[in-house]
Design a protein that fits this description.
With 236 residues, the chain is mainly alpha-helical. It has helices at residues 10-23, 28-48, 58-82, 88-92, 94-110, 112-117, 134-169, 172-175, 180-200, 216-224, and strands at residues 119-122, 129-133, 206-210, 229-233. Strands 1-2 form a two-stranded antiparallel ribbon. It has a two-stranded antiparallel ribbon with strand order 3-4. Strand 1 (119-122) and strand 2 (129-133) form a beta hairpin. Helix 1 runs antiparallel to helix 2 (28-48), helix 2 runs parallel beside helix 5 (94-110) and helix 7 packs antiparallel against helix 9. The two termini are 14 Å apart.
């Protein structure tokens, strides 16, 4: 497993990337560069923590990477343009909107093979394989996307509020003009220390669904074994 793709790398890598995205979000070159960095990291994480063992082609990886980066960058640039006349605090939330949009693109595309071919579903013991289910894959990917967006909320919502307060209500940044980026990275890190494990645990990695929610062909197989609930690895 590639070290940067492990969930244990999520806090140190994401705190730096997120802090920089929220510090440098006003100019087009900065938006493009940091969204590219973020989606490069996300592509690695999504590939490493996918469900099942089916290989992913370089074409699929490249498509997901390009679409997520383009989607995130386009969202950030469009929102920057729309919020130019809005209060400064609103503009600080643009990176979060871009990250949420990118997660909705990146994760399904990286894992599209699962949506087409399905992921293994088993009985409770994990010893009896019922088959491969695309509907289980859809459930797994939806849960992962939601947990990733929730994971980003504390580190991308609380720091903008703090930074806006320090900028508008105090003289802190005038006294320490070098402080915004390091401070945002530190606050993001503190948020991610708690948000990462909590949001990974929002849904069990070994998830389950009722047999009635599976494809008809799998329902027949499960019924023949007297099974009314199946289990699958949703990934992270």
């Amino acid at each position: 497993m590639f070290i940067l793709g492990r969930m244990s790398a999520q806090v140190p890598c994401n705190m730096f990337i997120t802090g920089m995205m929220m510090s440098f979000y006003k100019t087009t070159p900065a938006v493009v560069f940091w969204q590219w960095v973020n989606q490069s990291f996300n592509a690695i994480v999504n590939y490493t923590n996918r469900s099942g063992d089916k290989p992913i082609t370089n074409k699929t990886l490249g498509t997901a990477y390009a679409m997520a980066t383009t989607g995130a960058t386009a969202t950030a640039l469009a929102l920057n343009a729309l919020t130019k006349k809005a209060p400064p605090l609103i503009g600080r939330f643009v990176p979060f909107a871009a990250v949420a949009a990118a997660n909705c693109i990146n994760i399904p595309i990286i894992r599209q093979r699962e949506l087409v071919d399905g992921i293994p579903v088993t009985d409770k013991t994990g010893e009896l394989k019922i088959g491969e289910s695309s509907l289980a894959a859809k459930s797994a990917i939806t849960k992962v996307a939601l947990s990733r967006i929730c994971m980003a909320v504390p580190g991308m919502v609380l720091p903008p509020i703090l930074m806006n307060y320090l900028e508008t209500k105090t003289h802190f940044f005038k006294r320490y003009p070098w402080a915004p980026a390091p401070l945002q990275i530190a606050v993001c890190g503190a948020c991610l220390v708690f948000a990462t494990p909590l949001c990974c645990a929002l849904f069990p990695q070994r998830s389950s669904m009722k047999v009635s929610q599976l494809e008809p062909s799998l329902q027949k197989i499960a019924a023949s074994h007297g099974i009314d609930e199946v289990y699958f690895n949703k990934g992270l």
